[in-house]
Amino acid sequence: MIAGRTSPENYPALVLNADFRPLSYYPLSLWNWQDAVKAVFLDRVNIVAEYSHAVHSPSFEMSLPSVVSLKTYVRPALYPAFTRFNVFLRDRFSCQYCSSPDDLTFDHLVPRSKGGQTTWQNVVTACAPCNLKKGGKMPKAAGMIPAQSPFKPTVFDLHKNGRLFPPNYLHESWVDYLYWDSELEP
Prior knowledge:
Blueprint: E1 13-16, E2 30-31, H1 33-41, E3 45-56, E4 61-70, H2 84-90, E5 104-108, E6 123-127, H3 128-134, H4 139-142, H5 155-162
Parallel strand pairs: 1-4
Antiparallel strand pairs: 1-2, 3-4, 5-6
């Protein structure tokens, strides 16, 4: 590569399902340039938009895809996996006791010491100080009732919440396919 040129690593491709919706909002469904080019050559995607930057070999040149759509529709799962990140996303990255966005952990409403299980319906996002304060007590006994009752979210619930946290970088060619709405209630 010639010095002073921008590296291809700075050109991710937004990946859309066959219905032109992103596979995921948070994290945003992006492929690195190599995976996008490979998918084009394997005829798994359509190029929807391209960067002005190209990669080339001695006999071939190709503009890097900025938006690709899958040729085959991938049916999204209705319910997401139970993970720490997904609990935080469901609870909008804020402590359910004091609303702090800092030092997040998760808290079992019915403590594990009292038979509480690690399930969507028994876990909420809590900052470390609130989690420590509640300790092994039940919410009423600790005087700490979560702002939102825990629930098993759908993928659509997480996508809706993910739109509240747009990524730091959005290429102009992606904007027509992404729907971040500042009007959504926090």
